[in-house]
Amino acid sequence: MQNTQLSSQGIILAIIGIILFSAKAVLVKLAYKYNISSEHLLLFRMLFSLPIYLVFATYKKPLQKEKIRKIDYVWILFFGFVGYYLASYFDFLGLQYIKAGLERIILFVYPTLVIIISWLFFKKSITNKQLFAILITYIGVIVTFWGEIQLENTNIVLGVSLIFLSALTYAIYLVGSGWLIPKFGVVTFTSYAMIVSSMCIIIQYIMFDRQDIMSYPLELYIICIIMAIFSTIIPSYLISAAIAKLGASDFSIIASLGPVSTIVLAHFFLGENLSYIQISGAVVVILGVYVVSNKNKTI
């Protein structure tokens, strides 16, 4: 009875977290209407989020402090840079060129990238089921990509490439951080990594930009605050809690809702219309993610 209750709570947390995270793409597209650069948009997102992560990092202590070595903090710096800073930066750049719905579909190849990276660097075997899932996922991406080409968008290749790099860097973060999370705890590790990411974008601004960031319309700052609260801070901890209750495998299955929720949100808030072939591609991608996440069945 208790396990069922925990599962139900985990499912609810996961669904809410996934929908909120997916809304980020819609908010980014809304913000671009105010002629803001991707660098400034990412800067605002992290600046508004940073105080909350600092509070969590201060009061939430590591789970196994006595087992943490100095090199572990170096790895946090690395994964915070790769997994949140680079992944977010590539994502924000790519959203300048492609629709929010397509962005979310491309991003959801990261579970298959995790499998490939684990095989290349950690010699973890790939099962027939996983190979099948990889094939399905990339067929879905190609179908969706082809649908966008028919719209004769000259920047589609650049946009898709940037979003793919975002998925790749995030997959590297997931693979490499696995042994650190048990030491620090999901919430503490996430807070530390997000602080590193915030500092990276702040340093980038100080070193290479220094343009005025106080002259944007009030509406833009409101969008950025909403993005920081509802599409960064809250979902990051909701998803951490969901993974703790459900496990990564079950959570990955539910995470398949991500592309669908983005498409629905983009339709209502951005007026984006996906063709039937693009919707078909989205369904195929979701099927591939489901297959790679479902460990209870074999092929």
TrEMBL record:
Looking up InterPro entries in the UniProt record yields: AA-Vitamin_Transporters, EamA_dom, EmrE-like
Where does the record place it?
A: Membrane
**What Gene Ontology terms describe where this protein resides (cellular component)?**
membrane
Q: What parts of the sequence cross the membrane?
A: 12-30, 42-59, 71-90, 102-122, 131-149, 155-175, 187-208, 220-239, 251-270, 276-293
Pfam families under this entry?
A: EamA (PF00892)
Membrane topology qualifier: Multi-pass membrane protein
What residues does the EamA domain cover?
Answer: 10-145, 158-293
Q: Which UniProt keywords apply?
A: Membrane, Transmembrane, Transmembrane helix
By sequence similarity, the record places it as follows: Belongs to the EamA transporter family.
Name of the protein = Permease
What are the top taxonomic ranks of the organism? Bacteria, Pseudomonadati, Bacteroidota, Flavobacteriia, Flavobacteriales
